[in-house]
Automatic annotation (TrEMBL):
Descriptive protein name: Amino acid permease
Bilayer topology: Multi-pass membrane protein
Matches recorded under InterPro entries: AA/rel_permease1 (IPR002293), AminoAcid_Transporter (IPR050598)
Location, primary (coarse class): membrane
Molecular function via GO: L-amino acid transmembrane transporter activity
Gene Ontology CC: membrane
Residue ranges crossing the lipid bilayer per the database entry: 12-34, 46-66, 94-118, 149-167, 179-203, 223-241, 261-283, 314-341, 362-383, 389-410, 422-444, 450-467
Domain of life: Bacteria
Keywords: Membrane, Transmembrane, Transmembrane helix
Subcellular location as annotated: Membrane
């Protein structure tokens, strides 16, 4: 259910439990469900391990969501973790989180989802590219802005278009998310049913690893490293579940509805992801997905559906991916902009972002700033670079939010809690340990992506001291 109350200069409290749950699902379901099985197959070489990684990543994400929900129920407000961290750890840490969302986490998420939208369009109509000599030009030996230029330009056009949609108002943007999410879930169910019945697959595909697969014991450190590296891909598939907290000021009864939306949304996505990835691996052998990973701009879901529905099926699933990534990009842009508005309102972001459009009642300048930086990230690198970087940065702050469960129970023991995390203290403690291991493993196995992520996070420090000093001068 949804109500609308017009309040000039403030964001509107309007979304009920159903709409909040849909926003959680739509912010998660995007290109991860169609694309990430290929890089995971290349990393793990085993269908069983791929499915295990999807399940484990889902359980870990659920643990994080359950822990996040206790903090959200206690401190619900527009701005999500930014508000939580300000209460738990103080102003500087809250700012670093907000800046990280802008510089890395949410902007890179928008960029990477839009990137897959463009790749899917490229599977329908081949987009133009520069010559190999121009495509290979790089900045600092890291960034290749001209590589895959047709795909990148389409991704930027999508980001700008959806910024305009959300500029026009919450009801328009949120209504679009509901329609898109319902369409995508229905089509995914159809793919699963068709793949398992007429897909010509076999349980032998599920049971047979690649010829290059090396069997290892579960205690082998190399297997653990490979699993954690592969889960970077899976976690990007689940990324976005915490975004609903940014809209705490626009959700009815947020102390109750945010925890429920997080729980129902993540559980629903786990079931969807397991079903569709099982179908992929049932229809095609793992070696096919390894080859898909090695070929540029090829999407796993398109290859699977093409196998049993031919060119028409490939066309339909490409259109579905366009719809899914369109909706997910829209939802991410819709929610993250609320965070920057909140920071600017407190003098800790670009001043223009502290503005609510008098007609559309949206944080219009915040949306425009976000679109500009997300477009720059599209140009900066490849899809996998973007996703590995944002997951590394995300889990630093996911762990900090979960640690906040313990901190708040110590600092605010008598404050009523509408929701308490199930399995306390075991579930939040396990999630924190997992975050530490994932961060350490990424630093070792993906040093470039982790290094860029850390650098972008730390670039916020000079801005923080400038804005803080400027605020003191203004108030003097």
């Amino acid at each position: 259910m949804q109500t609308t109350t017009k309040t000039q200069g403030h964001l509107v409290r309007s979304l009920g439990l159903f709409s909040a749950t849909v926003l959680v699902i739509s912010s998660i379901i995007g290109s991860g469900i169609f694309k990430k099985v290929a890089p995971m197959s290349a990393e793990l070489q085993s269908p069983g391990l791929v499915l295990f990684c999807w399940l484990l990543a889902g359980i870990v994400s659920l643990f994080g969501a359950l822990s996040n929900a206790e903090v959200a129920s206690l401190l619900a407000d527009a701005g999500g973790e930014y508000v939580y961290f300000r209460t738990i750890y103080g102003r500087l840490f809250a700012f670093l989180y907000g800046w990280s969302c802008f510089a890395v986490i949410r902007s890179a998420s928008i960029a990477s989802i839009a990137y897959v939208f463009a790749q899917s369009l490229n599977s329908l109509w081949t987009l133009p590219t520069f010559s190999p000599e121009v495509s290979q030009l790089s900045l600092f030996g890291i960034f290749q802005p001209f590589d895959n230029i047709g795909v990148k330009l389409v991704a930027i056009i999508l980001i700008c278009s959806l910024t305009w949609v959300n500029y026009k108002g919450l009801r328009f943007g949120e209504g679009l998310s509901n329609i898109v999410t319902g369409t995508v879930v229905a089509c995914i169910v159809l793919i699963v049913i068709a793949g398992l019945t007429i897909g010509g697959g076999s349980f032998t595909n599920i049971q047979t690893p690649a010829p290059t697969y090396v069997s290892r014991s579960w205690t082998d450190p190399s297997l653990i490293n490979i699993l954690f590296t592969a889960m970077l891909a899976a976690f990007w598939g689940y990324e976005g579940w915490s975004s609903v907290g940014y809209m705490g000021g626009e959700i009815k009864n947020p102390n109750r509805n945010i925890p429920l939306a997080l729980t129902f949304g993540v559980l629903g996505v786990i079931l969807i992801y397991l079903a569709v990835n099982f179908t992929y691996l049932y229809v095609l052998p793992v070696t096919d997905f390894i080859q898909i990973h090695e070929s540029k701009n090829t999407i796993a879901a398109v290859a699977v559906v093409k196998h049993f529905w031919g060119t028409t099926g490939a066309l339909l699933v490409s259109i579905l991916i366009l719809i899914a990534t369109f909706g997910c990009t829209n939802t991410t842009a819709l929610m993250a902009s609320r965070l920057y508005y909140k920071m600017a309102n407190q003098g800790l972001f670009f001043r223009k972002a502290d503005y609510i459009h008098p007609v559309y009642n949206t944080p219009s300048y915040s949306l425009l700033i976000q679109a500009f930086w997300a477009s720059m990230l599209v140009l900066s690198g490849s899809f996998d670079q973007l996703t590995d970087m944002l997951i590394f940065a995300s889990f630093i702050f996911y762990g900090a939010t979960t640690l906040g469960v313990f901190v708040l129970r110590y600092k605010m023991p008598d404050t009523p809690r509408p929701y308490k995390v199930i399995g306390y203290p075991v579930i939040p403690a396990l999630f924190i340990i997992f975050c530490i291991v994932l961060i350490a493993n990424t630093l070792i196995e993906r040093p470039r992506e982790a290094g860029i992520g850390l650098f972008l996070i730390l670039t916020g420090l000079p801005f923080y001291f400038y804005w803080t000093q400027n605020n003191k001068s203004t108030s003097a």
